[in-house]
């Protein structure tokens, strides 16, 4: 048998391990560092996306708030959007600009870990807004509100009420085929009134701003502060949100008084039977003016009546064609104000321009020259009827404005628009509003979007 020769080779694996092991450790550390870095990048990217979503949510919120209140200036501080116990997201909004253009600046922030006071990621977006006006209001009231009964109807114009709305019997706003916009600010507090009146009621204070009884109904988009009951409203009816009070249109009474060029007596201005008369522009009439029994007066400009104005029995006040699109303003000072009855009419000119009738009486000591009336003086004034339309005829394109008091409309007819601290519509078939009060719906739409 052959003998196997012994190997005389010698060696050690330790040297191999000493050389290879550090490389293996470095390689493992590299992959661990790469995995950790990838996780951190993915996590930070997720946090950045959350901040972006928070900023976009803040932008959407801001557009809605700005549409409800064009004077809204932002959140003031951070608003929490999400908190799952590990990550928190917030947004903060500021609004700058004026009535012609606004910029919404939104900052979205993500906090991780949750206890951190410094955001892990922050995103800023800027939204450029522009106003779009539509649906000018034909009925607008102050703190007194709108009261409708029997078969009274508001057709052909949107409605803005600073106070409250009460509807009964078969009263109606809008048509099922032609819905309108109704906004109610609930500015009727405190009750009883004090020096702070009028202010917007707090939630649960002094009921809800809209009450509808019997078969009365509103067809249109209804937005009302503190209103939760949407029954008897449709097309689409009550929508969520609040309404900021809106200042009523202003008129420069002092300027019209200062512009007076002619003064005549009430007897010289009044007419009856089939008489015709002409009133010159910038005329002051002292005393009570009466137009009756089919008489006609052509008006060439602004008129100031220190007493009351009464039109009855088919009498007419006519806007002179020479005025074109310039409305003549009729100021009436007496506590009885202006009354229009028995088919009397305010006739527009060939251009379609009507009158603006102003009554300035109030229960305040400064009446009729008050520039502001609030508190108990306004409460005591809002129910005084200073403009009355009863069985009146065609008042298309004319605007009737009871500055501190009430406009009362009875029975059917056509009216351009009405404004008053309080508006009462009763015993009316259908009142069709064909003019604007000059105050309208403003919707703010997005013009541009950019991220910083």
Describe this structure in words.
With 452 residues, this protein is an alpha/beta fold. It is built from four helices and 30 strands. The strands form three sheets. It has an eight-stranded parallel barrel. The N and C termini lie far apart (91 Å).
Short summary:
The chain is an alpha/beta fold and 452 residues long.
Uncertain parts: none
The neighbouring-strand order within the major sheet is 5-7-10-12-9-6-29-28
pLDDT averaged over residues: 87
Q: Termini distance?
A: 91 Å
**What is the 3D form?**
elongated
What structural class is derived from the secondary structure elements? alpha/beta
Proportion of residues in β-strands:
35-45%
Determine the oligomeric state from the structure: single chain
Largest sheet: 8 strands, parallel, barrel
How many runs of DSSP E, i.e. beta strands? 30
What distinguishing features does this structure have?
452 residues; alpha/beta; 3 domains; eight-stranded parallel barrel; five-stranded antiparallel beta sheet; 4 helices; 30 strands; 16% helix
Task: Summarize the topology.
Layout: H1 14-68, E1 79-83, E2 88-97, E3 102-111, E4 121-134, E5 137-148, E6 153-155, E7 158-161, E8 165-167, E9 172-173, E10 180-184, E11 210-212, E12 217-224, E13 233-238, H2 253-258, E14 262-265, H3 266-269, E15 276-279, E16 283-286, E17 289-291, E18 296-299, E19 303-305, E20 309-311, E21 316-319, E22 329-332, E23 338-341, E24 345-347, E25 356-359, H4 375-381, E26 385-390, E27 394-410, E28 413-426, E29 431-433, E30 441-451
Parallel strand pairs: 5-7, 5-8, 5-28, 6-9, 6-29, 7-10, 8-11, 9-12, 10-12, 12-13, 14-16, 15-18, 16-19, 17-20, 18-21, 19-22, 20-23, 21-24, 22-25, 23-26, 25-27, 26-27, 27-28, 28-29
Antiparallel strand pairs: 1-2, 2-3, 3-4, 4-30
